[in-house]
Amino acid sequence: MNMNIQVINKSKHPLPAYATELSAGMDIRANLSASVTLKHLKDVLFQRVYI
């Protein structure tokens, strides 16, 4: 079964993407109204995620 899915990006930021052909993972971004500092080995929970 094939399914077509349309992704709508309403933010000013690009969608997650591989930086190079040999990248093991994607860089992700968040469209936040305030800055967040990520601390080493600590978790941060974001309530809503919109692309």
From TrEMBL:
GO terms for molecular function: hydrolase activity. Keywords: Hydrolase. This is Deoxyuridine 5'-triphosphate nucleotidohydrolase. The lineage of its organism: Bacteria, Pseudomonadati, Bacteroidota, Bacteroidia, Bacteroidales.
